[in-house]
Write the structure tokens for this entry.
Amino acid sequence: MNSRRPTFRHPDLPKNDLGYTRRDYEGADSTLCAGCGHDSISNAIIQACYELSIAPHKVAKMSGIGCSSKTPAYFLGKSHGFNSVHGRMPSIATGANMANRDLLYLGVSGDGDTASIGMGQFVHIARRNINMTYIVMNNGCYGLTKGQDSATADKGSASRKGRPNLFESIDLCELAVQLGSGFVARGFSGDKEQLVPLLKAAMTHKGFAMVDVISPCVTFNNTATSTKSYQWVRDHMEATATFDFIPPRQEITTQYEKGTTQSVTLHDGGVIHLHKSDDSIDITSRRSAIDALELHREKGQLLTGILHINEDLKDTHDILQTTETPLNSLTKKQLCPGDHILQQIVENYR
Amino acid sequence: MKLKGVNDFVIRFANVNGSGSASANTLFAKAVFRLGVPVSPKNIFPSNIQGLPTWYEVRVNEKGYLGRRGGYDFIVAVNGQTLQKDYEDLAPGGYFLYDSTRPLADDFKREDITLIGIPLTQICNREIENPKLRQLLKNIIYVGALAHLLDMELLVLTDSIERQFKKKPKLAVPNIQALELGFEYAADHFHDTCRLSVKRSKKLTDHILMDGNTATGLGAVYGGATVAGWYPITPSTSVIEAFDKFTSQYRLDESGKKNAAIIQAEDELTALGIALGASWNGARAFTATSGPGISLMNEFLGLAYFAEIPVVLINVQRTGPSTGMPTRTQQSDILLCAYASHGDTKQVLLFPCDPKECFEMTADSFDLAERLQTPVIIMSDLDLGMNDNICLPLKWDDSRTYDRGKVLDKDQLESLTEKWGRYLDKDGDGICYRTYPGTHPKLGSYFTRGSSHDEYAAYTEDSDAYNRCMVRLNRKWQTAKNLVPKPHITISDTTGTYGAVFFGTSTHASYEALEQLGLRDIIISTLRLRGVPFQDEVTDFIDRHEHIFVIEQNRDCQMRTLLINECGICPEKLVSITNIDGMPITATHILHSMEQELKSLLTPGAKPHKGGAR
């Protein structure tokens, strides 16, 4: 693990409800480039899990291949992780979730891993509504193979190579809404104030929660001509709303102005209060979400924040009507019908 | 001269697919089975839903030979598209039952066969009022006629129909009526016409007639599988259908919810990914597919091998390459599976030869996969998987427990005195200790990856660490030899001259052909392979005989290659007997091929067949 950081913990470090300090959620040292947006996202994940008081060992970190998929090594060192193969994280996460419905599944992928090689699996995990948080660290390029354009690179955007991208880009959020995801959000690695509550809300949502995080690649795609650069995103970012995420059992003390506030109650009793600048966006409506995304695209803006929520969907376990007990903890008595049943079955083949 | 015999003939039904012929033909086969006579039906069907030719052949054999024999003694020809070919395929002295509503064309001039014309369509149109039922019942009419012609007990057939329609007795009535119509017509028009017959026998005792895929699905239920990812592909789909059926019936909790999760995936990549993810997380999981799916699954098979994740994969093989003949059988994925995925990989294979073994090997494979922490591939095929096969009844030992392999729980993690490493070989058998996610708040977490890793699961590009890992995986492979099922060996040739090696669905026809050779004093020892890696017994068997015949159903003699490669056998020693027509191998084919090879072996200077189709 970490060789450079001291393992000493100051006894006065603040602790969360479970008695864990923020450090208990950290992982190994990052080996990504200095200034990489992905490291900020890792930090936001650590912060979100700490603030939500999630037991680290009750999280399973899933990833594919690429710079983004390396990051699970850099957060939640006490959680099991599975760095699978390129574009295949959704299937591994699906199986893992089927085996034990009681863990929090945190999927980390990139734009290459999700929007190209893993597009098929992404599409289908979303429509099955697997209960997990799916984070795309989206930098519009293939960092680990030295900066080729990815399928989320905007048409006309140019990376360090200087050649504008010729092809249409894929908007993963718009796609996720269309696929029926019950939680779709977009964040920016450079805006921690927004990202941490976004992740907390996503982790609390029951069902497939998609969080697309624009995360500039400082080495290959942070040029003035790129729409995935820090500068461009800062200049063109527009949020659906600022919001407060109130976990369950916490008293609501703030008074909200009527008319501009929308409240959504999550399945565990937590509430999201959105304070909207634009009252025309209704995040509980798929159509409104897609309209808003298209409108901002036409205006050359990047819409962030919670884009869509639907708390009424069933997750895969509920759809399949599997038992409440994690399947991996069923005993032989529950699994094996025994010889007397076998002999009854066999009788039908005589 | 007419062919004659009691309980010893092959009958072929030629139908149009989608016309309801399958249930009528199955009814016939099941009646033979219920008369206690060994029977082996083979459904030869097209990759199509309606309108193309389909055949169903049934071998009736008192001696209990269950493989295909080759040749047809009786043909029920009710498909105009193939009438000519069916007519030509009939053995001299055979019987040709056809729908005489329309006369045969002038060029049907054989004098060495017996024609049995029955106006099936005419009887149907005259006697069956409901036009919707006519097509279906036409098939039942010829089954009724056969009962008379073959001197079968009609009661067995009527009983079978009643059993089949137990829940819808109304439907049994027209079926029994059709059966009787056929029987009566034949009785009125044909006396002593057919010299073949089926007589009640005591050959079958408590046997069952079951398709391999059902047995495999049941094996997964009894083996404790809870998660299945799958993608529809012939001929494997019915494995999952069976798993679904039996879990829906016998695997419900108190509130009626399922103690299993079955997910139809978007492709075979995901199907295996789901099984792997579930297995990694401590559930017993599997998928079922066929050759084209295995091609896609190669990626994950490499990950599972290298990251050491147990998983069970059922491969119901069909005829390749590519889409090949999706509804025909073959044993042609052996090399693909044995070395599946890029880099140095080796996979554990099991070869069942009947439904009983499908059940047992599938149930065992979950123990084996978890013990070895690696994929286990069950190598079934279309012939075994989709055809009804006779076998001894399935049994389950209720005292048996599941072997979950080396998994550390919370207490075990706490009592460790040394630092735990996911890939640290503490026992010297190449198998390390794993943990499930969520086991302990502080201990036992690790990062699973398909990239090179050291003993503590950390990413490494250190040559020594990589080397240690690959060498250890080989050590595990040696351990696997003692755990996969041993071959069945019979040393009949004590002079050490001839031995034969075969496996899976080549088994029954091989034993039959070798018995025929035995009658001519050509004695051959036998070894039926049941698993890979090969044990020392396999090498010893090959070593103790001068010539070894390897009997298999593919062009490139894949098992021969695997034996040469894995056991270090001199290629000259292994003589190939292959069949690649997509149909289950016949005893006649094996016999003729072996006679030819034996001749070459005895001719000075002649070289035996080593590979490739003739």
